[in-house]
Amino acid sequence: MRKTSAPTIVVAGAGLTGLSAAIAAREAGARVVLLEKGSRGDVGGNAAFSGGLFLFCYDGPDDLTSITEDFEPGMKADRIEAPPYTREAYAAELLAMSGGQADSHLVNALAERSLDTVRWLAAKGVRFTFNRTLGAEVCDGVLRFPPGQVLTCTGEGMSRGFEVIRPLLAHAERIGVEIRWSTPLADVLRSEGQLTGVAVGDGSETVPAGAVVIATGGFQGNRELRREHLGPQWETVRLRGTRLATGEGIQAALRAGADKAGTWSSCHSAAVDPTMPSPGSSEASPPFPLHGFWLGVLINRDGERFVDESPGPWVKNYSKMGKAIMRQPGCEAFEIFDQRTAAQVADEFAGAAVPTIAHTIPELAKRIGVPADRLAHTLETYNSACPSGNGIADDHGTTGMTPPKSRWALPLDRPPFVAYHAIAGLTFSFGGIRIDPNGRALGVDGAPVTGLYAAGEAIGGLFYGDYPGGAALMRAAVFGRAAGHTAATETKPTPHAA
Ligand SMILES: Cc1cc2nc3c(=O)[nH]c(=O)nc-3n(C[C@H](O)[C@H](O)[C@H](O)COP(=O)(O)OP(=O)(O)OC[C@H]3O[C@@H](n4cnc5c(N)ncnc54)[C@H](O)[C@@H]3O)c2cc1C
Fold this sequence. Notes:
Blueprint: E1 2-5, E2 8-12, H1 16-27, E3 31-35, E4 53-54, H2 61-68, E5 80-81, H3 87-97, H4 104-123, E6 128-130, E7 137-139, E8 142-144, E9 151-153, H5 162-174, E10 178-180, E11 185-191, E12 194-200, E13 205-208, E14 211-214, H6 223-229, E15 238-239, H7 248-255, E16 260-261, E17 267-272, E18 297-299, H8 321-326, E19 332-337, H9 342-348, E20 356-358, H10 361-368, H11 372-385, E21 417-429, E22 432-433, E23 440-442, E24 448-454, H12 471-490, E25 494-497
Helix pairs in contact: 1-5, 1-12, 3-4, 4-12, 10-11
This protein binds flavin-adenine dinucleotide.
Flavin-adenine dinucleotide binds next to helix 1, helix 7, strand 21 and helix 12.
């Protein structure tokens, strides 16, 4: 006689996507085996290095304090002014930043489920706090936020995202997810159109399963795939996060019949401090992001400006600065400031990066190794294109200059002058597996590939040229949760001999 037991779901990757998928599948009644390529010290993937910022929809202060009240009891709704960030606004922003290319089904699902998923994470022990750095202001005892990036998880410094992972890992272990460290997924196994399990390690060991969720991240850690898809200059790029996202999960899914989605030739990449290496284990610090570019100008080693440093708030533009730097001679740049903004940059946007400081532009040029006449000409052109006036204002743009600086255009004329050396840091690749909003991997014919699911950075179709900060952690949790739940509810129980 044959009996049945709960379906076995294999989830590959113990980042935010994989942990969300594993927990959701387990809560839906499945037996869950979570495979992680790294050791326990590598848990968390990119989230462990992240700033912990989540972009989600809310109707107003009550939605926010219902999430933070346990951790910030003093922050009552009447002390907060937070105009709604609606689903429509979220979806419109994602679509606009992708140049209209993002898959509207995924966009709408992300916006629609974002608040509920933040609550789901909070219920599992993830602690959220108000982000007081992204345009928040205190006025008459009231904390005012512009709509959008309002909450981050609690924790210190740039790697506060580890605090998203810690409670989820503990929760997953508590509810009985079986975690196998140092066990990379090598391939997806199929027989007669059905998924039968996965091969792990060197491929000689198998783990039987009724469904697999690919949550192995992007391919940014793979030198050959970077060269093939992003271009030769990306071969030796500095990574901002996990070194273990090398694309095997994506490739296994494509071999199993999944289709590609999104742009494979683009990525999320920020300006970073070149003195810091790519991080090793998830407790290491990532290269510090030099997000202060909007307070000064960016120049290349020829002394020329090459990008609009401030087309909007930096949190909606920093992800393309690395790509702009990568296109410059020597794949390097310098962020230049004067004494109007140097202190703010040092306090908020430079970490331990050591600037070059000089009293004159020719002296600065000599010290950073750019042609003095070119730099002087560039800064004179910039200064004369800035509007007159002394205040720092977001609506001040340059006139008659290419490329323009659309906002925060203040002349650089108060010595000493300050330069930070910057290179591109690669955060994650944009191309991946095609999925539907419930996390089912789709084949080239648009139909689900039986038993195959995917989410997070392993998928394509949401982010293209640009990206709003906070949408990647949100994507990981929303679609990881969806993929795990769908896999568990669609997979038949496993038959076994009584
Ligand atoms: C420095 C930095 C700051 C960031 N800040 C933010 C932020 O503030 N807000 C935001 O929204 N986003 C941010 N992000 C992006 C965000 O962290 C990621 O998009 C998100 O965490 C991706 O999660 P993931 O689980 O899909 O992929 P990953 O985090 O890459 O996880 C994949 C996991 O799979 C494992 N793995 C790889 N291959 C295999 C295999 N073959 N078998 C088994 N396991 C495998 C990896 O070891 C890893 O643990 C940041 C990223 C970085 C690097």
